[in-house]
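Appendix B. Raw example, untouched.
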Amino acid sequence: MIVFFKIDRPARSTVDFAEIMRLAEHQSVALASATEPLDLTSSTSRAMAKVIAVFAELESDTIGMRVSSAHEHLQPRGSLHRR
């Protein structure tokens, strides 16, 4: 069994998460979240886990865009190098 804190922790990519689920099933390894009540042996819970993974990937991409945007905004003003 592999236990993780939340469904979105093992991978931030839906493709990677699906591969983890596939490999775990192929190797008869159970996956479990310590904080979410999903039984990943049922098809409904596996589908829900994939939906959660989609939103985790979206969140990761959004954070990356915000950080890049902030860096671009601050760069011309020299704010990143002042301290």
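End of appendix B.
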